[in-house]
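Encode chain A's predicted structure.
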Amino acid sequence: IYGFQMSHDMISDITDCIIPELEEWKNRPLKKCYAFVFVDCLYVTLRNDYEVKECAVYVILGYDLNGRKEILGLWISESESKNYWMQIFDEIKSQGVEDIFFISMDGVAGLEAGAKAIFPKVVVQRCIVHLIRNSIKYVPTRDYKKFTQSLKKVYGAPTLKAANSAFEIFCKEWSQYPGAVDVWKRNYSHVEQLFDYGSAVRKVMYTTNAIEAVNSSFRKVTKKGAFPNETALFKLLYLRIKELEKKWSTGYIPNWSMVLNQLMVNDLFKDRIDKYIRL
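Encoded structure for chain A:
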């Protein structure tokens, strides 16, 4: 409109001014305790000379004991693997994280064992929404609605006894789709453990929607093309994180006081909460 043009090199030089701030952010001390941590990956295209490849960007979102959201860090690797997740957990521990109550994840093989190797007391929860997606692959489209309604009676039950009864009915009702039912039989322990905690805690831990919302925000700025290098990608994602942090700074996790109260009456968490809130 104004007849003024900027080259890619000029834009890169201008945004390079945030690199020291980015490096400081990546190596900053983290809080000692996070009540909930959500982990996920998104894939971004990187260009190396004439080669274009998809790389995994590892993202961790944490909820601290005050009900505040925080992105703990970003990491890049060629693919998602349990070994790299274990390295990441080890890294955040070296940055000061001593305790995590819950980790919600989408079911990467070996991630639970890797997380517990670094944080032995952590409860690892499979995302119920991902399990639903995995199971409806075996269900014809015409039955999606009835199938998911039957499932909701299981994980949305008020008590474990009610959930077990609903699960028995579910298995019989949908036995014509053994692949779908088997997904839930293999992972039913992750449904059962939800009922070890209050309804407010269950509502937070049962899904990774929180981290998926963050990754959706990232995809809006990464979907336009390939990045020339990791530094360019990190710069863009860091600027997006700054925008998210500004948005989050004005509010807390909904119903957080109830979540904290339900954790306080649980013997697994009471002393741990007292220890870190006093700090």
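Strands lie at 33-48, 51-64, 69-77, 99-105, 123-126.
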